[in-house]
């Protein structure tokens, strides 16, 4: 069987509650529009998951079966708990980044990139990841003669 992407499963799911051919523009929740949607529909049609008649599509028996065999979506899966860190194991990249951000003067992206042996865009992405995981990071003004802003981790009160 052909591997279904998340977009394909979303399209098939949108069709699952409908009887008979449905005009494409009447379906809601489709993951794409225009040429991208046409490409997805062509793929599904060529594999026998849907039938196309003009600007209408219908789910086939193969498509219905594919939905029942589809892997669970990300929302259905539980996030596994991280394994406990072994004593004496080397520090993680995240813990090294947090430690560098706790310094009194803060750290610039070039300083962090050099210390962690990362590229600047990787360093900025890691800072964003820390913010998304609940850390509060202050942006400090650059030192005299420098153009790089400094970042410092805010300690919880």
Structure description:
The chain is α+β, with helices and mostly antiparallel strands and 157 residues long. The chain is built from 6 helices and 6 strands. It has helices spanning 6-16, 34-46, 61-69, 93-101, 109-116, 120-132; strands spanning 22-23, 50-53, 56-59, 107-108, 137-140, 150-153. The strands form 2 sheets. Strands 1-3-2 form a 3-stranded antiparallel sheet. A 3-stranded antiparallel sheet has the order 4-6-5. The radius of gyration is 25 Å and the shape is elongated.
Oligomer: single chain
The parts where pLDDT drops under 50 for at least 5 residues are 72-79
Average pLDDT metric: 79
Q: What structural class should be given to the helix and strand makeup?
A: alpha+beta
How many individual helices? 6
Order of helical and strand elements:
HEHEEHHEHHEE
The coarse silhouette is: elongated
């Amino acid at each position: 069987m052909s591997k279904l992407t998340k977009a394909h499963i979303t399209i098939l799911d949108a069709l699952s509650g409908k009887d008979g051919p449905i005009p494409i523009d009447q379906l809601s929740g489709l993951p794409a529009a225009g040429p991208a949607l046409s490409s997805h529909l062509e793929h599904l049609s060529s594999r026998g998951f849907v039938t196309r008649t003009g600007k209408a599509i219908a789910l086939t028996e193969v498509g219905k079966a594919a939905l029942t065999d589809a892997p669970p979506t990300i929302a259905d899966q539980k996030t596994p708990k991280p394994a406990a860190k072994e004593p004496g194991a080397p520090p993680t990249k995240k813990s090294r980044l947090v430690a560098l951000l706790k310094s009194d003067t803060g750290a610039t992206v070039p300083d962090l990139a050099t210390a962690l042996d990362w590229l600047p865009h990787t360093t900025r992405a890691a800072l964003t990841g820390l913010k998304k995981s609940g850390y509060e990071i202050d942006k400090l003004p650059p030192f005299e003669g420098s153009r790089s802003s400094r970042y410092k981790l805010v300690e919880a009160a």
